[in-house]
TrEMBL record:
This is HAD family hydrolase. Keywords: Hydrolase, Magnesium. One of its GO terms (biological process) is DNA repair. Pfam families: HAD_2 (PF13419). InterPro entries: HAD-like_hydrolase_sf (IPR050155), HAD-like_sf (IPR036412), HAD_2 (IPR041492), HAD_sf (IPR023214), PGP-like_dom2 (IPR023198). One of its GO terms (cellular component) is cytosol. The keyword Flavoprotein does not apply. GO terms for molecular function: phosphoglycolate phosphatase activity. PANTHER family: PHOSPHOGLYCOLATE PHOSPHATASE. The keyword Cytoplasm does not apply. It comes from the Bacteria.
Length: 208
């Protein structure tokens, strides 16, 4: 079965409200700038460095903040849902014989709990990436143990770093337009394909 690797936050699930709440809890402790849901669209258009500057978050402190952030995120797990249409896409791809995999920097048990809560049983494997080392390391590790060539796999993600990671390991990527980064922020990375809505993923795969 050919693997399709699906990014979690921003691609499969709409966790915007949970992420905003988690960030604001941490920001208040450190006197960093808090955000609201209406700020998200503007933030999507910024690079990581630009976001850090806007939020008064020193970039070197990101690794120190992440454990607190993920703990708060997990507490909001029951309020997180798949983007409309994405569960149907996963089921259709599974029906066609693809091996569905999830990649995330969240803990594996967090992802498994989400899948169980939302009655998603078609995911074959969960890949956990180090938020600092990059997703390419997790993908590369999987490629090494797979019998399928990297260029015959497919990645579905929403961020600039997803596209860059895929370029490093020669895995084609479908960038989705409903996630955490706007079209302006990712064009420089030149994703292989672009989906404006979940059903476009099926259309792209049909065209390959």
């Amino acid at each position: 079965m050919k693997p399709i690797i699906v990014d979690f936050d921003g691609t499969l699930v709409d966790s915007t409200a949970a992420l905003v709440a988690a960030w604001n809890t941490i920001a208040q402790k450190h006197q960093w700038k808090d955000i609201s849901l209406k700020d998200i669209e503007a933030l999507k258009k910024l690079s990581l460095m630009e976001r850090s500057k806007l939020l008064n978050l020193p970039i070197y402190k990101v690794p120190l903040v992440l454990p607190q952030f993920y703990q708060l995120y997990r507490q909001a797990l029951q309020d997180i849902r798949p983007f409309k249409g994405m569960k149907k896409v996963l089921l259709e791809l599974h029906k066609r014989g693809f091996k569905i995999m999830i990649i995330s920097s969240h803990a594996k048990d967090t992802i498994l709990a989400f899948l169980k809560l939302n009655d998603i049983h078609c995911v074959a494997e969960v890949l956990c990436s180090n938020p600092i080392a990059g997703k390419d390391k997790a993908i590369e590790k999987f490629i090494k143990k797979s019998t399928i060539p990297a260029d015959e796999m497919l990645y579905i993600g929403d961020e600039y770093r997803d596209s860059i990671a895929c370029k490093k390991v020669s895995v084609p990527i479908i960038w989705v337009g409903w996630g955490y980064e706007a079209n302006e922020a990712i064009q420089h990375s030149k994703p292989d394909y672009q989906a404006a809505a979940p059903q476009d993923i099926i259309k792209i795969i049909d065209s390959l």
